[in-house]
Design a protein that fits this description.
Layout: H1 2-42, E1 56-62, H2 69-77, E2 86-93, H3 99-104, E3 112-116, H4 122-132, E4 137-141, E5 146-147, H5 151-157, E6 164-174, H6 178-201, E7 211-215, H7 228-238, E8 242-254, H8 259-279, H9 290-304, H10 306-321, H11 326-347, H12 358-378
Parallel strand pairs: 1-2, 1-4, 2-3, 6-8
Antiparallel strand pairs: 4-7, 5-8, 6-7
Amino acid sequence: MRRAVAAKGETVILQIVFWTSILMVAYPLVLYPLLISLIGTIRPRPVRRAAHRVPVSVLIPAFNEEDVIEATVRNKLEQDYPRELLEIIVISDASADRTDDIVRSFSRDGVRLLRNEDRAGKAEGLNRAVREARGEILVFSDANTLFARDGISRLVENFADADVGYVTGSLGFLATQGVAGSGVDAYIRYENLVRRAETRVHSIIGVNGGCDAMRRELYSDVPKDQISDFVLPLSVLMAGRRVVFDETATASEEANQDLAPEFNMRVRVALRAMRGLCYVSDLLKPWRHPWAAFCIWSHKVLRYGAYVFMLVAMVSNIALALDGGIYLALLAAHVLFYMLALGTIVQGPEAGLPKVFSVPAYMVTSNVAFAIASLRFLRGESMATWRPRAG
């Protein structure tokens, strides 16, 4: 009798563990977006966008970007923003190819080159460029990001609202083939839906980094081992200003077609974001920053830790499935999900599988990357430099 009672108690505990793990995986991906969408419907806070013309400095960090830098600089010169109000600065992080020569060829157009003789990373380059920039608004572009012709104008319109301190545009990816390309395309579409909902309520947490802008007065030097795309918008939140998403400010860049560089990039971004959360840890305190803490815990922390709950859910599901019933069916679905992900990764783009198959593969790959980043974070590792599009 006691054994039966004990066994039943263990089963109940396993069921609680299983469903709690499933909930913790589903919450940041599904429940949180639904919740903030509901809040935004009940209490919307629209951004007061209007035509706004002020001096702008476009900052483009670059390292060995000879294949793309010419197109990127031309793209910024061809913006519909008043040329007399537009300053373009390329920061070469000790590039060893033709990047610097290509940028110098645009000097007659007023494009400035700042070169670091030793590699220092993106954050250090931006810190230097901001000290020399003349613009009231800073626009950040990656070396391979092409803005729509009205991209800068659209970004700057948001600063007509005095509450707005940082803006991120809508970044699309070209040639989205294979597991990596299709996965990142689906991911960015999903992220934009979440950003749209967060903006309607107050502020977003994650920005794309390749098509962004902020008020220069709010910029403060970023430590070289921090990810500027993560720390800067959070510092704006700490200053009491809004960080918003503008889907009309569009830009594009090539997506990684191979899974390996995409995986390396995910590890790098997650590792640096974890270090960034420590740097702005005050925002994790709900009694000091209620909205920011709610969003960061929901959108970032729980998502980075989802691999733990995924593992616990699988182990507890296996134990529960020994008694058959619904948990056996759930285990079959569980196994099918991972087999589909693994099979898609192994087969690769040449298999011609439907794009929807890339979603579980990308999800599993991302969570493995988060697990590795967590381990490296616990070891105290940091990363200030990397190779473009190779992680």
